[in-house]
Design a protein that fits this description.
Helix content is about 30%, strand content about 20%. The protein has about 220 residues and is an alpha/beta fold. The protein has two domains: about 10-60 and about 95-210, 3-Layer(aba) Sandwich (Rossmann fold); about 65-95, no CATH class. Helix 4 (about 150-160) links the parallel strand 6 and strand 7. The longest helix has 16 residues, at about 35-50.
Length: about 220
């Protein structure tokens, strides 16, 4: 049986934390060397989504500068980032509201009509209007790109699956801190939640769907 194609009118692209703090060099700007291939893949997907008039979503971290909404869960990793705020130990985020680092990179800049989801936790669905926006737009499938693979991308993919959205993980448009983490999630975790496809493979499925071939 042929693989189900993707109907552009029912498919959205979700860019997770494609922010300057994560993708730009700390000094001098420009895309970090380790992120250049990922950003190029994100750009190819965005160009195709624009041409097919698909909904484009940007899920972006939104943390108060005063720390009042920072996460309080104690973890084994990132112990050096816990600070005392308002009487509780809280995890200091990589960027805060209003800072340059919290902006989407220029190479993937949102346009009027795109959806910008300001999120406060890893999942882009957690206490945001993402699900409402997708449902009212008639979307039943999301293609996820961004980082980190094992953090926000994974949390959003799990949440989407539990809400009965079809999920496509854009393998070459996602990135974790370590290659072996990417490989593990792409090969062992995400195939249980949906499909793992490259940007080129996803574009081909969308173009086939736009031409009226069998789709999900």
């Amino acid at each position: 049986m042929a693989e189900p194609t993707l109907a552009p009118s029912r498919t959205a692209v979700v860019y997770f934390d494609t922010l300057k703090v994560y993708l730009y060099n700390r000094e001098g700007g420009g895309i970090r060397p380790e992120a250049q291939a990922q950003v190029a893949a994100c750009q190819r997907m965005l160009e195709s989504a624009r041409s097919l008039e698909m909904p484009v979503v940007y899920a972006a971290a939104d943390h108060r500068p005063d720390g009042a909404d920072w996460a309080t869960s104690i973890t084994e990793h990132n112990a050096d980032r816990f600070v005392e705020v308002l009487g509780k130990p809280r995890l200091r985020p990589a960027t805060v509201r209003g800072s340059e680092g919290a902006e989407v990179i220029d190479e993937l800049a949102p346009r009027a009509g795109d959806y910008v989801i300001l999120k406060h936790r890893w999942s882009a669905f957690q206490n945001t209007h993402l699900e409402l926006s997708l449902r009212t737009a008639g979307v039943d499938t999301i293609c996820i790109a961004g980082g980190g693979t094992d953090v926000g991308v994974a949390a959003t993919a799990y949440a989407a699956r539990d809400r009965d959205f079809n999920v496509v993980i854009l393998r070459d448009a996602c990135r974790a801190a370590r290659r072996e983490v990417d490989d593990y999630f792409m090969e062992h975790v995400f195939p249980r939640l949906g499909r793992v496809r490259t940007v080129a493979e996803t574009i081909a499925l969308l173009q086939a769907g736009a031409e009226g071939h069998f789709s999900v």
